[in-house]
Amino acid sequence: MGTARRSFVATLVAVTVVACALALWQLRALLALFLLGLVIAAAMRPAVEWLRRHHVPGAAGVALHYLVLLGLVALFLWFVVPRAIDQLSAASGGSIPTSKSQLQHEAAHSTGIKHEILSAVNKKLKKLPSGAAVIHPAISAGKTAIEVFVGIFFTFATAAYWVFERDRARRLVVSIVPRRHRRVVHDTWELIDLKLGAFVRGELLLVCFVGTVLSVCFWLIGEPYWLLVGIFAGLVELIPIVGPIAAGVVAIAVGFSASWHIALFAGIAVTGVRLLEDYIVVPKLLGHAVGLSPLVVLVAITALGLLLGGLYVLLAIPLAAILGTLLDVIVRDRDPGDEEVPTVIFPAQDRETIGR
Model-level pTM? Predict the structure, then answer.
């Protein structure tokens, strides 16, 4: 009887675990948005607390962050996008066709890569349904746009609420663990939160720094499509090892379309900015935000991209930082209270202590 009962309990536990795993897999998009919201909240929290110490309410501090973000997006759309479109149009060999007749004319009279691209687009347009058959794709596109909007709203709403609910959730988790483990759980939570916030702020600084400095350098040396190449170099900064190499290859290749000395200057500019970043910007201003080696970061990004898709790559480094911190505490028995606290823009405040 005892064996049968143990077998039943083991089977029930196994089925429950499998069911929970399947449920989490189906909800992976929601969980990813929720985790992204927590990461954004970790990045905002030090600034919100700093504003609160200067008599600015927490809700106003969060709203101020979002207003600044909207202002930066509006500035980007006003200043960068029109110039990028002009350069993209120039890169395509002239004005971009805006009607079917213009597309057919350009496809018939163009040559090389441009001819191949326009011909392929023209063939795709001929296969598109017409009349009532277009309604369904239009509805699908509208549905996708609404889903994207809801996802963005959910992420930033989660970030705003988590700024205020984090301490309450931490106290709840700490209260249900044995008393002898409470300090370790508390310090581990705090260390992970600090690492995630430092990572987001550091990555944003690096993207803006690399994109801005290289765009100016490319403009000074006469690099064709200097703004597009500079923006590309800033964005690929999110990808360790491969990103900077890709930025250098693209900059040199575009430079060769004008002259060999522009390609040489472009390569020197990318190398110089990279050295400046590695030896001055990162060590002096950013430090080791997440404490992960570039190889671990590269493997995490590749694995998550292959497993879940490209959109989930944004969560690769935060997840790797969380797992790395937990392994240090649980497996390597390191005291999270003695770990170096990352400081990016905002210095870390003294950690809270709880009763033992």
Answer: 0.70
